[in-house]
Amino acid sequence: MTARILDGVRIGKEIRGEVAAAVARMAGKGRKPGLAVVIVGDDPASRVYVRSKGRACLEAGMHSETVEYPATVTQDELLAQIDRLNADPAIHGMLVQLPLPKHIDTDAVLRRIDPAKDVDGFHPVNVGKLVIGDPTAFRPATPYGVQQMLIREGIETKGAHAVIIGRSTIVGKPMAGLLLHDAPGGNATVTVCHSRSRDLPSIARTADILVVAIGKPEFVTADMVRPGAVVIDVGINRVNDASHPKGYRLVGDVAYAPVAEVASAITPVPGGVGPMTIAMLLRNTLQAAEQAGR
Ligand code: NAD
Fold first, then answer.
1. 294 pLDDT exceeds 90?
2. Is residue 14 part of a domain?
3. Is the same domain home to 91 and 179?
4. Cα–Cα distance for residue pair 36/281, rounded to 1 Å
5. Which listed residue (118, 120, 208, 253) is catalytic?
6. Coil, strand, or helix at residue 200?
7. What is residue 129's predicted lDDT score, i.e. its pLDDT?
8. Between the CA of residue 160 and those of 149, 156, 187, 200, what are the distances in Å?
9. Which of 98, 117, 238, 244 has its CA 20 to 30 A from that of 28?
10. Same domain for 198 and 115?
11. For 43-159, where are the E strands, in sequence order?
């Protein structure tokens, strides 16, 4: 079997187009959703992500602001900036790019964000809303994007056994919540595996839908995948490759070529889940503006 490729670039573009159309309708009423991104330090990968978020916002017709701080910023300065953005009526959504330097208390920063503007969905209020299935919750963009891919590709989650490898707050746990809900793209039987799970390969082999988010290059091999399963690879890992102009290449958490021989559908890296994440961040910013009613 050679798996169907789930094309995140195409689906992400479709969603961004829908968001842009909704933003244009809002503009007709004199309203414009705004997203602020706060970045601390000069981690190259974080800078690339932040730049592409800003660009995507502008392309969708939204207002975009990037607030940059050196790695030496104090916690108080950062909290004061969040307070300003919380109070700014032109900003409907905000996020603080992670990771933050070690001297900053990340939890305190994330909890300072007004839950109504928390488009990453990391504030405990939104985490709780997601668990209870409150539709006003902001769903973390990466698992939300995975769910949209499944829905838009006609992959039935109802009654399916979904196995998630990885239990992070950003991906694994919210993914479990979304797949569990009694809603489209939900109603799955969900198993979450992690670094302490016993005999992970045999659990993975029971999956109809396997979502992998651990940050370990090509960890999932073909023998861990049931023939015909759908495989969603969230991982983005740099591996050294002297034959590449940059000296490295990106791989996922799944050994793509051999697994594609076994799976019925698979996401590539890059070009799979990554582009969905930005599309869903825009979707969340639109949701924030709609819910704010301004
Ligand atoms: P994380 O480091 O916060 O969490 C990793 C999780 O994997 C942990 O829960 C841990 O228990 C589990 N794990 C680690 N080693 C394991 C093992 N050997 N067996 C089973 N479980 C194991 O990671 P994260 O933030 O969830 O990110 C995971 C990956 O997804 C990374 O490669 C990251 O770059 C990528 N990511 C991609 C996007 C995107 O937009 N595509 C977004 C977020 C994260």
1. no
2. no
3. no
4. 12
5. 120
6. helix
7. 98
8. 16, 7, 8, 18
9. 117
10. no
11. 63-69, 93-96
Closest CA to 228 of 257, 265, 198: 265
Q: What is the pLDDT of residues 167-201, one digit of tens each?
A: 999 999 999 999 999 999 999 999 999 999 999 99
Tokens 């582009």 sit on residue: 275
Tokens linked to 158? 């109802």
Over residues 137-143, mean pLDDT: 98
Kindly list the distances between the CA atom of residue 114 and the CA atoms of 86, 140, 201, 220, 290, in Å, as whole numbers in the listed order.
6, 15, 41, 38, 16
Find the length of the chain: 294
Q: Is residue 230 part of a domain?
A: yes
Confirm whether 23 is domain-assigned. no
pLDDT digits (tens, 9 = 90+) for 236-255: 999 999 999 999 999 999 99
Between the alpha carbon of residue 115 and those of residues 8, 56, 98, 222, the distances in Å are 28, 23, 17, 41
In order of 143, 164, 165, the CA distances from 279 in angstroms are: 12, 22, 23
Residue 275 structure tokens = 């582009």
Atom 1 of ligand 1: nearest residue by CA position: 168
Domain extent at residue 47: 30-127
- 120 among known catalytic residues: yes
Domain for residue 49, yes or no? yes
Ligand 1 site residues (CB inside 6 A) read 142, 165-168, 170-172, 193-195, 200, 213-216, 234-237, 273-274, 277
Please name the residue whose Cα sits nearest to atom 19 of ligand 1.
195
Q: Which two tokens stand for residue 45?
A: 């990968």
Bond prior to 99 in cis (omega within 30° of 0): yes
